[in-house]
Design goal:
mainly alpha
Length: 113
């Protein structure tokens, strides 16, 4: 690079000369250490299960589906594969079909035009 190029580029600011080494895990804005210490962090699923937001049955199903996806390198299993996993867990159709209306979480309010 010539002297002419370096002089015409005075608006360039070198930001790589930061005094904080990001590899240390320090938050530059707050000066806090982001690492929580020894041990493994809990996954969001594990936190939800431990905080009572999921039943044991729901958590088991979620973990089996996650294991299936990892073992078969499938980010999105098909519904047929999900049914196979459910059957592998031991679930069988023994009751009469029910309406899905009872499972609806939040009913949509009627739209007014």
């Amino acid at each position: 690079m010539t002297d002419k190029d370096s002089k015409s580029n005075d608006s360039f600011i070198e930001r790589r000369n930061s005094t904080v080494d990001r590899r240390l895990g320090l938050d530059r804005r707050l000066g806090l250490n982001r690492r929580r210490g020894p041990g493994r962090r809990r996954t969001d699923e594990r936190k939800a299960a431990e905080e009572g937001q999921m039943t044991d049955e729901q958590f088991e199903f979620l973990m089996v589906i996650d294991r299936y996806k990892k073992e078969n390198q499938r980010p999105f299993p098909t519904w047929t594969e999900v049914l196979e996993v459910i059957k592998a867990l031991g679930y069988r159709k023994v009751a009469e079909p029910q309406s899905l209306k009872s499972f609806k979480k939040n009913p949509e309010p009627a739209k007014v035009r």
